[in-house]
Amino acid sequence: xxxxxxxxxxxxxxxxxxxxxxxxxxxxxxxxxxxxxxxxxxxxxxxxxxxxxxxxxxxxxxxxxxxxxxxxxxxxxxxxxxxxxxxxxxxxxxxxxxxxxxxxxxxxxxxxxxxxxxxxxxxxxxxxxxxxxxxxxxxxxxxxxxxxxxxxxxxxxxxxxxxxxxxxxxxxxxxxxxxxxxxxxxxxxxxxxxxxxxxxxxxxxxxxxxxxxxxxxxxxxxxxxxxxxxxxxxxxxxxxxxxxxxxxxxxxxxxxxxxxxxxxxxxxxxxxxxxxxxxxxxxxxxxxxxxxxxxxxxxxxxxxxxxxxxxxxxxxxxxxxxxxxxxxxxxxxxxxxxx
Length: 339
Description:
By secondary structure, this protein is an alpha/beta fold.
């Protein structure tokens, strides 16, 4: 994040001296609530860090995987204890941004439950991650309350999924059940995996819809398992090595759209109930795609209508090779005319 900030400022003709930036590497192991407690005490025990958090003009939090609920709950605590300045009448009100990379907000892939790969890695902490698959569990409820506090305090949240993540589904990394104008969603695609085909464009299109406040009708959930990476791959980890991911979060925080008014930035989030399923209903994908098409036509948005036309062309040209992708094309055949 430090390097990305320097690059961002340099692009805009600005410069910060080293003493103007305080790096606070909060790290720890264990279950989410235990980590929150330990990392909070770690911060309080360091006077330099505590002062920096309270007095900074800009507070940037970069987090990955299990660190996402941990960081949200930490920020919530700092807000409630007055360490962060979020009140609009405070002349020193801070700009605060959280970058969640491959965040496990709705749990891991359901099919990983009981997997030996996860059992040998911090058994209790790994088992807890599956509790986030159900929004009614105790830890998921605490996380959602943390999100409510953070979002209504004006914090800008950037959620970036990794296309070939072998642990965290796309829908989990982009918090598909949470709706708020201060959340921006994106997907990281490694250059070696990028193809300008129908599937990639459908994912990008669905994310743009969510960023515009338009419902994706569950498309992101339906596509998540198809793009899951190999269990022995590196898709879950390579995301935090890409500087563009950090730059996106900076642009999201420092260059918000004109439509994001102060009132909208602090509105109550919509928290839909969520429960991950081992097996998805195959009929939901074409039904969701039809819903998107109908919504766009009803809105009369010419930009989105042209994007639908482009998706139809890409669909007709698409020749998937994997079993999962072939299944996606087959299931969408009945709504091709709607694209």
